[in-house]
């Protein structure tokens, strides 16, 4: 516990330290503003440049700037989280659609929707597995070797999820044009962008070689 007697001694000390160290910083002309807030949003924008859909990447991830800071692992993890929630929402949408739609004699449309739902379920599992793996990375004592192994799992699962999302709409190739087909294909294309971006950020993180 600091006593009242100690305080007057400490204060001048801090004051001198502050003056000594702040002087060179303020006199040296720096191209950056003196107290430039590094909130991670610039970092996210530049990292998103490595993805196929940089605008979607930035708009979906910039809200996590303060949590991400400049950490590639955190960025990859939030991107996987966003991709997971998108895939889950699409699976729920497709499930709703197959319950609500009356396909009548259009068995192909019903089957295509069923297959799509099943593929999305696989994608959700793979993305969820990736997220769990990412949470284990960087745990105490993890070596570079185990990092690369864990990252290769995440890369494999995210690639598989992307393939499953692609496969989702395959069954619709034989289905005539209609509102359901259009809507499902548009949504699948959208979900794929988030997964693709997350995979690109996962690859960037793996390339750093360290947790
Ligand atoms: C981060 O900084 C940029 C520019 O410095 C600013 O436009 C943006 O609103 C900030 N974002 C957050 C979440 O604080
Ligand atoms: C699915 O249906 C439920 C109940 O009708 C609804 O609350 C939910 O918003 C729907 N979800 C999607 C993604 O369309």
From TrEMBL:
Keyword Signal recorded: yes
Domain Pectinesterase inhibitor intervals: 39-201
A family per Pfam: PMEI
Gene3D superfamilies from the UniProt entry: Invertase/pectin methylesterase inhibitor family protein (1.20.140.40)
Keyword presence, Signal: yes
Signal sequence, start to end: 1-22
Domain of life: Eukaryota
One Gene Ontology molecular-function label: pectinesterase inhibitor activity
Keywords of this entry: Signal
Protein family per UniProt: Belongs to the PMEI family.
Protein name: Pectinesterase inhibitor domain-containing protein
Organism: Dovyalis caffra
């Amino acid at each position: 516990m600091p006593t009242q007697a100690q305080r007057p001694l400490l204060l001048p000390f801090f004051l001198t330290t502050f003056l000594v160290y702040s002087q060179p910083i303020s006199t040296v002309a720096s191209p950056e503003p003196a107290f430039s807030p590094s909130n991670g949003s610039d970092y996210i924008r530049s990292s998103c440049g490595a993805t196929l859909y940089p605008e979607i990447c930035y708009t979906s991830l910039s809200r996590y700037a303060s949590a991400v800071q400049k950490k590639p692992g955190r960025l990859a993890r939030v991107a996987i989280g966003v991709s997971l929630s998108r895939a889950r929402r699409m699976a729920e949408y497709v499930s709703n659609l197959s319950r609500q739609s009356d396909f009548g004699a259009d068995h192909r449309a019903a089957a295509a929707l069923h297959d799509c739902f099943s593929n999305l379920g696989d994608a959700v599992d793979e993305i969820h597995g990736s997220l769990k793996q990412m949470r284990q990375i960087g745990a105490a004592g993890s070596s570079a070797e185990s990092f690369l192994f864990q990252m290769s799992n995440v890369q494999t699962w995210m690639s598989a999820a992307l393939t499953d999302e692609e496969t989702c709409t395959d069954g619709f190739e034989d289905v005539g044009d209609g509102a359901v087909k259009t809507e499902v294909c548009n949504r699948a294309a959208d979900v794929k962008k988030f997964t693709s971006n997350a995979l690109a950020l996962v690859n960037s993180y793996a390339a750093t070689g360290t947790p």
